[in-house]
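Let us begin with a simple case.
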Amino acid sequence: MSNPLEIVSAVLVASLLSMSVPAAAESIDSANSGQKKFSESWSLQNPKNMVSQSRCGAMPDIKCCIANIKNCFEPQNLSKNTTVVFRIHVVGHEPTYTVTKNSGTPADEFYCEQAFWEALPFIEVGGATTNADCEFYANQVSKSDQVSSRKLYSEAHPEIRKKYVVIHVIPISVQLLTSIEREDLQSLKNLKAISINNLKSPLLSEFRKEWVAFLKTEEYLFIPRRDILKEADHLVKKYQSLFID
């Protein structure tokens, strides 16, 4: 006669084996599931009817360079009546800049500097050596009528008392890839705060350079939305100590 405990055990094992295991919920990264990820509030779906955008056409290199920088600039972020001037140097294939005027604060310089870094992956230069001034004004007409990222963030986080600047985690220039819309890139979910004391931090420089390196791939005319969000998750986690929030 069979042992009743053996019979019960056999039935339980058979039942468990016959059960179908539900598929895991779609996510970019299943590791550290208890920790909120940057990408959690983003849709993973690419927009419909995506068409690669032209960046400069026949525009000369230096004008193309400045046009790209201005496209990433939010004049509403500058202090009132502020003017900042960058001298853009194009030597070979790598543009650089020197700050020649800043009538405002270190934060104002940061917002202009950030526009340069956000545009850098998509600046195409042909190798000729040239220089030109890129001027930033607080009253410069914006391509968007929406509230500045600085004001948008401060209204959502009144509890933060220390002085800070606001950075787009995913660069605004990614809109040229057509896999993420500008509305998403300029929304609250794409913003992080950095203390004024960290504006010259090596971590900020490394964070920017990693984005440039990631976006300057051979396939940069289109990078899937999922890949961009995965990289954002990676960089936010890696440079977590850089951000206030």
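The second case is a distinct protein. As before, the sequence precedes its structure tokens.
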Amino acid sequence: MDIKKITAFIAIPAVVLIIVYAVAFRGGGKEEIFGGNKNIRFKDVKLFHAPVEFNDPEAKNYFSSTAANPHTLRYFKSLQTHFQEEKTLGDHFAAVHEYMLSILPREKAEELFALYKKFTQYEIDVNSEFQNKKQPGNTSEAITVLSDLQNYRRDYFGKETADSLFGAEVKTLEFGIKRESIVNDGSLYGKDKEKRLKNLGGQFWGADAEEAESYRTDPSARCDEKLTIYKKDLNEMNPGQREAAVRKIREEFFAPAIVDRLEGLDRKLAQQKKNEGSYREKEKAVLTEPGLSREEKESRLETLQNEMMGEDADVFRKKEAIRKALQSGTGKR
């Protein structure tokens, strides 16, 4: 088999987890895979996500005690990429084996190589097992898919090895799914969500919960998330209260000048929405006016767009063209 085709094919299992993690789940999710597992700590998660390169001079130290640890998966992926020019899977394995023998004592090299071969076959087999899985639609289903996947790995590698290889990844995903479930729960007020999020962090990361939270450094993402957390509160405020509350949240993450620009953008978008609503009413009147030719209607609509959209008229017309093309493609009018 062509190793390039194999390495392209075995990249697919990650899609299973991306789908699970990307969906904004709501409700449920009481099942537990690693939530209360104290053996997988936040430091293991950081190690799992740290770069591990094929030519790292410290690579031999990653496996001084055991072949299966938080470094292993990324290191294996690096090997797959580095030796993908080999024409066959056999040639690929031979090159990897020779390399491992060159950097590790024979006993450790053979242990790591045996795990590498098994991992490569696993990536092929897991596709057949999970490619027809129904995409999860809520938290409980997502956790079930993740649990099924980890149990499959435990059967395949043995529980200890599977948890050493994938535990940090699965615990991160399990935490992310449950965290998103709380953040996007439309029935809860912000303070309730924050309390639940704090409890969840303590459950998963213990004394490292604060560090885990601070590890999320993107201010835009954190600000957007907090606005989502307080969405129910904001929706129940009058416009003035809501504007003040949104500004207060933004000021936690951005300098005042940036907050001012964001507010300016808010006002512009609100005005555009108002203008578009008014335009739709007038557009309907033009389109239903009897006696007008198609050309006359188009001319009146263009004039109307210029009057109501101002400098944004050209952008609006482009959006309209895209909208109509999409509607035409789906048979809508």
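Confidence is low (pLDDT under 50) at residues 8-29. Residues 183 and 228 are 7 Å apart (CA to CA).
Keep these points in mind for the review questions at the end of the chapter.
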